[in-house]
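FORM 7B: Structural annotation worksheet

SECTION A. Query
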Amino acid sequence: MKITFLGTAAATACPLVFCRCPVCREAWRKGGPDFRRRSSVLIGEDLLIDLGPDVMSSAFDFGVDVSGIRFLLQTHSHSDHFNAGHLITRMQDYATEDILPLEVCASPETLRHMSEYLALEEPGADLLLPEWQERLNLSVHSMRHGDMLVLGNRRITAAESNHDLQDGSLLYIIEEEGKTFFYATDTMRLTDRTWKLFRERGFAFDAVAIDTTYGPGTHGGGHLSADQAAEEIARLRAEGVLKPGGRAFATHISHEGMPLHRELDQYAKAHGFEAARDGLSLEI
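SECTION B. Predicted structure
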């Protein structure tokens, strides 16, 4: 399974537009791994997790052909994860040519909110209506915690996120040819029901990407800090849910209390994981 991190930032990206903190100043000055786009991940060449606002710039910089995406797993509908302007261009009104069918997976709440944002781009647009699915050349899969479906040669399982409950935020487990990847961004501590799901289904992950929005000792709302992420990863290893030798990555990284990438990566490696960077590509 090939995993490419198209973006690894939290909602505000890094650097922030107006910020003059040391992390943002360094990102402006040097770029490199401290320059982060909003979080999104590509699996193989055709499965995208989160159609965010920075997907196109990331694809250009990292040589990714996003026109080949056939499957979209949407974690939730927040603006740093879903850009309705990208999706609406699947209409023929935009003179889009030779588009491939797209299968969209999300919770019922997220699908409803995505439809509301689409309607701001094109009045009347609704992902849940067959006529609009036809116009956008896509199909929709509504998923809740514990639901499983097959997309191409992959098996997808949804797990609840401890993030925006009104939006029905989801985490995703992707299985492909004996390899398993758990994408767990935009969450606080993993819920008891999610841990129960791991145990009941016998999941053993080869790789994990986990929310690490805040720096060590800096706790905010709706997300994990680096030390909390380290604790979750340690538990995944201790309970055998993350395989021996399995890799874990910090993503959804803000500037809040956060050191520069090289220092974050040092902290992470001392605690059993790694700091992802934009453009990082790996095979598991």
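SECTION C. Observations
The two ends are 5 Å apart (CA to CA). The first strand starts at residue 2 and ends at 7.

SECTION D. Sign-off
Analyst initials: ____
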